[in-house]
Amino acid sequence: MMRRIVYFLPLALVAVLLGFFIVGLQKDPRKLPSVLLDRPVPAFTLAGLPGREGALTGPDELKGQVTLLNFFGSWCVACLQEHAMLKRIRAEGLAPLHGIAFKDQPEDTLRWLGRHGDPYDRVGYDTTNRIAIEFGITGAPETFVIDADGVIQYKHIGPITAQVWAETLRPLIEDLSTP
């Protein structure tokens, strides 16, 4: 009897782990919940990029109107993928688009923005990566929709595509902008 239990126990454990694995594979990693949703933007103080006007230095600059806040880096391949879309979003003028450069050197960020175009109204430079941690950033790019009161309403993980803009972000911004 004891031998049967000894053989059955590992088999049962493997079956349970396999069940968790199968359920986990069916979830979309871009839909990770954020503990910051419906909460004010975390307090922060940022340095601006040297020689670039329009520094994002703190959360008060994210109040007054619906805003997009994009975390990016010159080292980030996916950031380059979404960059053309960010320029289109900026051209539409629906909402201010601010950026926070992290895990980067200021001169690399400036060179990257100079080479690929600068879609941002304001840019802050996260010298310590502490701000990225406060926002729960898991990688780049990540973009937040922040309402006029400075409250985080949505977090998008990964590059913004035309489809994401048309089906998710744009309608949300329009809805939040309606009095």
From TrEMBL:
Main subcellular localization, coarse class?
Answer: other
Q: From which organism does this entry originate? A: Rhodospira trueperi
Please indicate if the UniProt record lists Repeat as a keyword.
Answer: no
Q: Does the keyword Ribosomal protein apply?
A: no
Assigned keywords, A-Z: Cytochrome c-type biogenesis, Disulfide bond, Membrane, Redox-active center, Transmembrane, Transmembrane helix
Q: Which GO terms describe its cellular component?
A: outer membrane-bounded periplasmic space
- One short Pfam name that applies is Redoxin
> Its Gene Ontology molecular function terms?
disulfide oxidoreductase activity
* Residue ranges of domain Thioredoxin in the record: 35-178
Question: Which CDD domains does this chain map to?
Answer: TlpA_like_DsbE
What subcellular locations does the record give? Cell envelope
What is the protein named? Cytochrome c biogenesis protein CcmG, thiol:disulfide interchange protein DsbE
Family to which the UniProt record says this protein belongs: Belongs to the thioredoxin family. DsbE subfamily.
Transmembrane residue ranges = 6-25
Q: Which Gene3D superfamilies match?
A: Glutaredoxin
Report the domain of life of the source organism: Bacteria
Q: Which PANTHER family match?
A: THIOL:DISULFIDE INTERCHANGE PROTEIN DSBE
Q: Which biological process, per GO, is one annotated for this protein?
A: cytochrome complex assembly
